[in-house]
């Protein structure tokens, strides 16, 4: 009679342990699934940002090339007028250009390049024009760097989402083991599965708490 009572008490304790493990695993599985969906959303938005910045970088380069082509045409026309010493054409061209280009051409002609061998051979080698092109290139590179940063961030979010998916599977495995435990009649197999479930649940829980970043709905 005493052995029967002890067995029943042990079964009752196992039922309690099993219920606690199942509750923890269920809550953790739901949490990991929720975090996985949030990080998946972060990945989507960050990759969209990457595409946006890459597109902006290309647009800046295209506009820069177009501007450079138009500027080259205007500079060639300006140099023809300068060679002909046609002040009227020179003044007319300068007035029709953007202020920064007009300023560069004015500075170049003031250097008397046709007589001074130390002067730049054409306005496009002027420091001001070189700096202007550098600013355009820097702006494009800045957008390109943002695109790379957003892409890396998206990949990181994808890895985190996949890890949360793996953790969800592990907690679901614990839930599966605890469900099987309730169907077993013999005490030893039930105790074995409870211990295995507890160890897996504890290990995965510690991994989740101490290593996984948490996303917040913004």
What report would you give on this structure?
The chain has 218 residues and is mainly alpha-helical. It has one domain. It is built from five helices and no strands. Helix 1 (2-83) packs antiparallel against helix 2 (87-96) and helix 1 (2-83) packs parallel to helix 5. The longest helix is centred in the N-terminal third of the chain and has 82 residues, at 2-83.
| Radius of gyration, CA atoms, in whole angstroms | 36 Å
Q: Count the strands?
A: 0
How large is the count of helical segments?
A: 5
Number of domains: 1
**Average pLDDT over all residues:** 88
N-end to C-end Cα span: 61 Å
**SSE order:** HHHHH
- Global morphology: rod-shaped
Short summary:
The protein is about 85% helix and about 0% strand. The model has no long low-confidence stretch (mean pLDDT about 90). The radius of gyration is 36 Å and the shape is rod-shaped.
Can you give keywords for this protein?
218 residues; mainly alpha; 0% strand
């Amino acid at each position: 009679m005493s052995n029967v009572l002890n067995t029943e008490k042990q079964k009752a304790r196992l039922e309690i342990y099993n219920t606690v493990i199942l509750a923890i695993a269920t809550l953790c599985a739901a949490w990991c699934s929720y975090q996985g969906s949030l990080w998946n959303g972060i990945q989507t938005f960050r990759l969209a940002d990457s595409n946006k910045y890459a597109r902006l970088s290309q647009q800046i380069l295209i506009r820069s090339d177009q501007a450079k082509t138009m500027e080259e045409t205007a500079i060639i026309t300006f140099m023809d007028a300068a060679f002909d010493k046609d002040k009227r054409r020179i003044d007319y061209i300068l007035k029709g250009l953007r202020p920064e280009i007009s300023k560069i051409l004015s500075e170049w002609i003031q250097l008397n390049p046709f007589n001074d061998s130390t002067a730049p051979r054409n306005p496009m080698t002027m420091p001001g024009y070189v700096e202007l092109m550098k600013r355009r290139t820097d702006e494009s590179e800045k957008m390109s760097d943002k695109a790379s940063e957003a892409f890396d961030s998206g990949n990181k979010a994808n890895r985190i989402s996949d890890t949360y998916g793996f953790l969800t599977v592990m907690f679901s495995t614990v839930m599966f083991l605890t469900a099987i435990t309730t169907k077993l009649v013999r005490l030893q197999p039930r105790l074995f599965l409870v211990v295995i479930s507890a160890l897996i649940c504890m290990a995965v829980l510690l991994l989740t708490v101490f290593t996984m970043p948490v996303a917040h709905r913004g």
